[in-house]
Amino acid sequence: MKLKDLLVNIKYTAQNNINPEITDIIYDSRKVTEGCVFVCLKGYTSDGHKYAESAANNGAAALVISDELDFEVNKNIAVIKTENTRLALALMSAEFFKNPAKELKTVAITGTKGKTTTTAMVAEIFEQSGIKCGTIGTLGIVYDGKTYKTENTTPESYEIHKSMRDMVNAGCKALVIEASSIGLKHHRLAGIEFDAGIFTNFSDDHIGGVEHKDMDEYLYCKSLLFRQCRFAAANADDPNWKKITKDAKNPVLTFGFSENAQLRAKNEHLLSEDGFIGVHFDTEGIKKLSVDVGIPGKFNAYNALAAICAVSFFNIDDESIIKGLKNAKVKGRVEPVKVPGNYTLLIDYAHNALSMENVLTTLRQYNPNRLITMFGAGGNRPKVRRYEMGEVSGRLSDLSVITEDNSRFEDVMDIIEDIKTGIKKTDGKYVVVPNRKDAIRYCMENAHDGDIIVLAGKGHEDYQEIKGVKYHMDERELIAEIIAEENNRK
């Protein structure tokens, strides 16, 4: 593609009046290839302008800059100067990959909490209706049964547009993406007009340091999403919804429990039966539904309402919505795993005291026969985390099963002793099973009817890190192996 074809939506000045053929767009100088355009991005700790000369020497056909360069550029290299190179990267990427967003039904979800779960719900509803869907967010880039890990909840714009093109090529017809405030601040979603933008909720997060200087900036960055959405839906029970959606192009569809919401939930209650735990509610207003959500916690009624609103812009049938919400699950977030017994087995990423307390408090509301928590703690991390996790599990669990979890360069038994220090501050019962597979087996073999067992700490991770080496270990596979081994013994 010719350089000028990539620049059609960008305000710029050009040095060296040439129009080279561009083979790729690169913003990491270590990945420069012959004929690429190198975009100089300014990060928190580095500045791409420092690597522009290296990129030029290694074959870049064009440089995109916002600051003056401190070297003389060869006349065979085009130099494009623009005010914001991050915005330029996004708009150029959209053109380079031929605007794949226009070939997809697109939903972007923003909010402090609930983005990942709501994304999973919307995607599952699309799938239930026969619309193949990809997602981008906390768990990575996911489509066609495969997951590609990313560094950020909302990846760099080039990765987003490339992924959308790959999704289209794989037969996807829809995309759901988590729109983080940082991603919006840095123009990673620029160049896309979303069909629907969803606001879940707003609370104190990402303030200070290099993220957002204060709550006002945090709120403002979230509001940016709604300037680039055809339609929008928002949580009417959150007092900030009007501020965040003030720039929406069309009237905003609202959801919540309050009477002024256009999609309202009522009759909500927790569900726990035959290993299924979740929440039930009915809706009134723009849709009348009776819904069972297969993810525990009353707060997931809000995420489900958000998902219903999101798909309402695409005329998805009610049966697909009902099936999608019942079957949706988030990998590694109170994720249920089917087991032969009459108990509930969940995998969750909770790996610190706060996240563990949130999960266990939620599960306590289901009045299990026993709440059993299996967990370890990461090596080469502050010991206080281990004490705190032990104390939380001892206080909220009927039984704690202490095991390994990414021991890194520490001895597993030393970490376990630290966890025990915390548990001993409580009256909680515990056992120690150092090998993680053996610990899972212990939980399963000793489960009683009505128990809820949480395997905490690993979540979506599929490895165990020991002495600098990451060994493959997926708890879902371990559970399947344990079931198979038990069946072979019978």
Map the helices and strands:
Elements: H1 3-6, E1 13-15, E2 25-26, E3 37-39, H2 52-57, E4 62-65, E5 78-81, H3 85-96, E6 105-110, H4 115-128, E7 133-137, E8 140-143, E9 146-148, H5 157-169, E10 174-178, H6 181-185, E11 194-199, H7 215-223, E12 229-235, H8 241-244, E13 253-256, E14 263-273, E15 276-285, E16 290-293, H9 300-312, H10 318-327, E17 335-336, E18 344-348, H11 353-364, E19 371-375, H12 383-396, E20 399-402, H13 412-423, E21 429-432, H14 436-445, E22 452-456, E23 463-466, E24 469-472, H15 475-489
Parallel strand pairs: 2-3, 3-4, 4-5, 6-10, 6-11, 7-10, 11-12, 12-13, 13-14, 18-22, 19-20, 19-22, 20-21
Antiparallel strand pairs: 1-5, 7-8, 8-9, 14-15, 15-16, 17-18, 23-24
Walkthrough of the structure:
The protein folds into three domains: 3-85, Udp-n-acetylmuramoylalanyl-d-glutamate--2,6- Diaminopimelate Ligase, Chain: A, domain 1, CATH 3.40.1390.10; 100-327, 3-Layer(aba) Sandwich (UDP-N-acetylmuramoyl-L-alanine:D-glutamate ligase); 335-489, Protein-Tyrosine Phosphatase, Chain A. The model has no long low-confidence stretch (mean pLDDT 96). The strands form four sheets. Strands 9-8-7-10-6-11-12-13-14-15-16 form an eleven-stranded mixed beta sheet, sandwiched between helices. It has a six-stranded mixed beta sheet with strand order 17-18-22-19-20-21, with helices on both faces. Strands 1-5-4-3-2 form a five-stranded mixed beta sheet. The protein contains 15 helices and 24 strands. β12 (229-235), α8 and β13 (253-256) form a beta-alpha-beta unit. 31% of the residues lie in helices and 23% in strands. It has helices at residues 3-6, 52-57, 85-96, 115-128, 157-169, 181-185, 215-223, 241-244, 300-312, 318-327, 353-364, 383-396, 412-423, 436-445, 475-489, and strands spanning 13-15, 25-26, 37-39, 62-65, 78-81, 105-110, 133-137, 140-143, 146-148, 174-178, 194-199, 229-235, 253-256, 263-273, 276-285, 290-293, 335-336, 344-348, 371-375, 399-402, 429-432, 452-456, 463-466, 469-472. It starts with a helix and ends with a helix. By secondary structure, the protein is an alpha/beta fold. α4 (115-128) packs across α10.
